[in-house]
Specification:
With 638 residues, the protein is an alpha+beta fold. The chain is built from 21 helices and 24 strands. Strands 1, 2, 3, 4, 5, 6, 7, 8 and 9 form a nine-stranded mixed β-sheet that branches. It has a five-stranded mixed β-sheet with strand order 10-11-14-12-13, sandwiched between helices.
Length: 638
């Protein structure tokens, strides 16, 4: 018999109990992402001080025992008694949800905090937290344990003649709440660097005592420096980025852009320093103004007649080769979408469009040589777009079910529900043959790829669609390609597994395929559809017992378990084709036993940077990258 549902069963969570009970509701998760979010929340408070013009330096320090210290030289959290709560303001901020200056437009016109939960959530999810406030010539300190005050707020006079202001927050995330306390220095560095770009002149220092690594970020050029960083490994069309700034109280619009010789586009959007990965109204306004302004300039200066091209440039044409950062600051930002990654404030579209329309038009009139180079590139894109349209129609006309589309290549599965279906993209016909024989035909499809597919980093869309292997892949997946056509709802498989040999060529082919997905089908990555198969490196056999090892450490462990290396037969797999169908199924394709790695996108800026280095035209950055990372390589086969 079920328990009686009465008032007794209604649990009322007071103060920060709700946060400890459901931490994922406030910080997203209790894994490494949530752990990092704790640091971001504290840094955001300091950044808000910087945006308000009261802070110029922020220091972040991770100690050996895992506790984090964030120090700024802002005004310091208020310490006077709160009029209604009858306790110091800092205690209210630390122990009460939705308390803080971010709701008071006199204190902060704009704020990076998404929902105002901020530091109180960090306090709730920490084993202990200490706050130290420098203001009015005194140092105020208070300690909290599991979100509750452990001491009263105490104060003492600051030593020395020079009196400083600011806040220091030290906290130790709770090991009972988080599944890991192992921070990623690189992931944190990327976000801290991003904040330094977005807040010109603010010095952000990050040091990690556990690794001995540190960074000192300070970009006086702000988002202009950001764009220069994005184009660091590319050939640019004009040396100096175009910079647009418009401050109409209470709104701030900052845009920097620079064109390069590549064929993709990279636009990063921010609202109050928050990376709006899904765009929104500020991006819509920027794109609309860009297309209209370049078309108006080309018409006015008779550039269409001179080049004998079409009379209109599309949005895709004018954005080919652009690297841009769109940063807006506004009160009361409204975020939409599942990940809160889309700005919804309607007024921003018109404001950004007006600013860019006016200021970009002025720039083009004053810099005709730059204007001509950009428009020439856009016109070349328009011509390629016409060719691509014909290639797309060819792909569209050929159904996957037609034998003429994929002659003897795609071995499809019998099930048709994309959620249940997976496709293996396999290197070479030999491995493809083994995979076809070893698979479960009900839900596993096999597409062997011949040789290395086209490097899309160095090709326009028309050349990409003319490539047989790429066209075969696109047709098999069913989603279409590119911003205008891609539709994830048409995906024929929700798991796309890249299966290549564990050697240099295999790694290269894997990178070529990932480059295609990252540049032209990024939603497949963000929706968690792309995986990398992990075939074993070794087969260890002694007598009738055979085991598989996926790395050297596992191999050594198995050999030790078998009693050492007297009578052990060790086979090193250099290619998938060396495994028979049963072995391939058992080690790499059986959902019950296989290991597959999901491809995720932690940081789009860094991913763009790495793909450009590895697959772009410039040799020097690639050489430098290889030299710097050579010692990290494992299981290298040449």
């Amino acid at each position: 018999m079920s328990k009686e549902y009465t008032a007794k069963g209604i649990q009322v969570l007071k103060g920060l109990d709700a946060v400890r009970k459901r931490p994922a509701m406030y910080i997203g998760s209790t894994d490494i992402h949530g752990l990092h979010h704790m640091i971001y929340e504290v840094i955001d408070n300091s950044i808000d001080e910087a945006m308000a013009g009261h802070c110029s330096k922020i220091e972040i320090f991770i100690s050996k025992d895992g506790h984090v210290t964030v120090t700024d030289d802002g005004r310091g959290i208020p310490v006077d008694m709160h009029p209604t709560q009858k306790k110091p303001a800092v205690e209210v901020v630390m122990t009460t949800l939705h308390a803080g200056g971010k709701f008071d437009h006199d204190s902060y016109k704009v704020s990076g905090g998404l929902h105002g939960v901020g530091v109180s959530v960090v306090n709730a999810l920490s084993e202990w937290l200490e706050v130290e406030i420098f203001r009015e010539g005194e140092v105020f300190t208070q300690r909290y344990e599991n979100g509750e005050p452990a001491t009263k707020l105490t104060s003492k006079a600051q030593a020395g003649r020079k009196k400083r202001t600011g806040t220091t927050v030290r906290f130790m995330p709770s090991g009972n709440i988080f599944s890991t306390l192992d921070y990623s220095f690189d992931t944190l560095s990327l976000r801290i660097r991003e904040l330094a770009f977005l807040n010109a002149g603010v010095n952000l220092v990050f040091a990690d005592e556990r690794t001995g690594k540190s960074h000192d970020f300070n970009y006086s050029g702000g988002i202009v420096s950001f764009v220069e960083f994005l184009n660091e490994n590319r050939d640019v069309i004009h040396k100096k980025p175009i910079y647009i700034e418009d401050r109409t109280d209470p709104y701030e619009i900052e845009i920097a852009m620079q064109y390069n010789t590549s064929y993709g586009e990279k636009i990063f959007c921010f609202a109050n320093n928050i990376n709006t990965v899904d765009g929104g109204t500020h991006l819509t306004g920027f794109k609309g103004a860009l297309t209209r302004t370049f078309n108006n300039y080309a018409q006015k200066n008779n550039l269409f007649k001179k080049s004998k091209t079409s009379t209109t440039l599309s949005g895709d044409d004018v954005r080919e080769g652009i690297a841009a950062v769109v940063s807006v600051k506004l009160p009361e930002p409204q975020f939409e979408g599942q990940t809160k990654g889309k700005l919804g404030n309607r007024e921003m579209s018109g404001l950004v469009q007006a600013s860019v329309g006016q200021k970009l038009a002025e720039f083009l009139e004053e810099n005709p040589s730059v204007a001509k180079k950009i428009i020439e590139k856009a016109m070349q894109s328009a011509r390629a777009r016409d060719a691509a349209r014909k290639a797309r129609e060819l792909v569209r006309r050929k159904s996957v079910l037609e034998s003429s589309a994929l002659p003897g290549k795609l071995a499809d599965c019998s099930m048709t529900d994309p959620e249940q279906c997976e496709i293996y993209l396999v290197e070479g016909d030999s491995a493809g043959g083994s995979a076809k024989q070893g698979r479960d035909r009900r839900f596993q499809a096999i597409l062997p790829l011949k040789g290395k597919i086209l490097n899309v980093e160095k090709a326009r869309i028309d050349k990409i669609l003319a490539n047989e292997e790429v066209r075969t892949l696109i047709t098999a997946l069913g989603t279409g390609i590119g911003e205008e056509e891609f539709d994830i709802s048409k995906a024929r498989y929700r798991k796309i597994i890249i299966m290549t040999d564990a050697d240099v060529d295999g790694a290269h082919i894997r990178t070529l395929i990932l480059t295609l997905f990252f540049r032209y089908m990024p939603k497949l990555i963000s929706e968690g559809c792309i995986y990398i198969a992990q075939p074993p490196l070794y087969r260890v056999k002694k007598g009738k017992v055979a085991k598989y090892a996926y790395d050297d450490e596992e191999k050594d462990k198995i050999i030790k378990e078998m009693g050492g290396s007297r009578g052990v037969y060790l086979q090193r797999y250099k290619g998938l084709g060396e495994m028979n169908p049963d072995q391939l199924w058992m080690t790499t394709m059986d959902p019950e036993r296989r290991t597959i790695l999901k491809v995720t996108l932690e940081d789009a800026v860094e991913a763009d940077h790495i793909f450009t280095i590895l697959m772009g035209d410039k040799v020097e950055p690639r050489k430098k990258f290889i030299e710097e990372n050579a010692l990290e390589v494992r299981n290298l086969d040449v």
